[in-house]
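Re: weekly structure request thread

Next one in the queue (323 aa):
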Amino acid sequence: MNETLPNELHRLLQKQHGVVARSQLERLRLPKSTLQGVLNRNFERSLPRVYRFKGAAHSWEQDVFGLWLWSAGAGVISHQTAALLWKIEGLPKCPLHVSVSTGRALSRSNIVLHRTRLSKKEMTTLGPLTVTTARRTLVDLAGVLDPPALEVVVDQFLMRRLVHPRAMSKWLSGIEHKGRDGVHRLVSVLEDRGPGRSPESPLETKLLTLITAAGLPRPVRQLEITDNGKLVARVDFAFPEQKLAIECDGYRYHFGLVRWDKDQERANHLLLMGWRVLRVTWRSIEANPERVVSQIKAALAAQETGPSPDWDAETDLSWTRSR
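Done, posted below.
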């Protein structure tokens, strides 16, 4: 950055992605004329009383930091923007969101202002930024996301242990009477998880959403299958009555020759125990979700009759069946 800037300002801009608040500039105790000269030569206004250094590359982080500086301690980064700061993936592109309790006003096409009172227990910090807590962020998202997108987000919060299902449900029961948008929807998503653990990968979440949307029975997730008290496998999804297991094969989670050998040994053991195993890949869900659903339906219906006549062994689904 510009070497003519005071060292303190130089360091501040590096920490804040190239943006600074007027109040921060005033704390430098520069003569008023000098301060105005620094602003005129090196900065442009991005928001009221927030300035962007002209030499700084524009970024999403810069916009978020500028919005937080504008709120001047009265605002909290929230909704989708908070979720992104919590490292949640797969959210659609959207404006920046901030929640304020005061009468502050701001009109920008890329900013959504929410007027709400948040308790201290609903706020936290990520780095220097004040954001909504993980559970409050989930409540906010439940009010704006459609059910499939909400399921994907909920599972990411659970997978990363940002929220605990029981603690989340207890907290939701305490605020449900207040009529917040999305609370009932979020409760429903948590209850739909049913018995078992939460999905452990985005692929599992996507498949679970697909199964639910197709009206198929809800599978048990992360079922531990044992033989004479010894663990044989923990399968991603299972229909125990039909002895049907579904495994999600994502490259990130199933790769390497050693892991492949172990998967085959496990599959053989399951076969000898009478279990059938369907394997689903990300490509199969993306390319032909209807085909995935039809194969699961066929497997549930087949039970002891074997695969349907139109089974195609070259698809991304593979079937292992006991004889």
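The longest strand covers residues 230-239. Residues 306-323 have pLDDT under 50 and may be disordered.
Next request, please.
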